[in-house]
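Lab notebook page, bench 4
Experiment: in silico fold of construct C2
Operator: M.H.
Input chain length: 199 residues
Purpose: comparison with the prior construct
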Amino acid sequence: MSPSDPVIPASAEVLTLTPADRSAVYLLAVDPEAPQMAALLAPRRLNGETGATLATLLGLPPEAEDELELVNPADLEGVGLSGYLTEGLGLDPEEVTPDRARLDAVTAPVVLLRGRLTGLEDRVLPLPRGLSLLGRYDADYTPIGLGQIPTRTATAGTLPPPQGPLPGPFRLSRPWQITLILTGIVALGLLLWVALALI
């Protein structure tokens, strides 16, 4: 074991995060009775230092605080925890909806841990006493690209025939053709007249 590897107590619940979890959000339940959680449940919520406190509790570097959030379900009246996850964070409703009743019944604060804190390598994260995994939910992504074009010719792999006659070479109308011919004759006549005048 290298010096940077965390020492994991045998009783600890462990999260293993991989780069594939970058779009996921982990929901961790807070046990208000656990002494380790007392700082998170302080009345003034640490004057905006909650993220840093969470990073310390989880053994993460200070810069990880942006990927951690403490949410109190009591502050989500009318929305509920499930609504906050889908509408507020854009998580996939198909994943959250089956857990809606269970999530909306939670009354104690919860910790949101964004999977992107794992970076490009796997990360083993032992949870301290008082935190336990409540759920893992992925972001709701709309596929990018063109949908299938609902035409018979598109599915057959051919283009439809052009409408009307095929375009041909550019042609002038008959009056313009006559005008150009007469102008050419007049120009030749003038040139001939000038040439005869110079002789």
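Observations: DSSP finds six helices and six strands in the chain. Helices lie at 50-57, 80-88, 93-96, 100-104, 152-156, 174-198.
Next step: discuss at group meeting.
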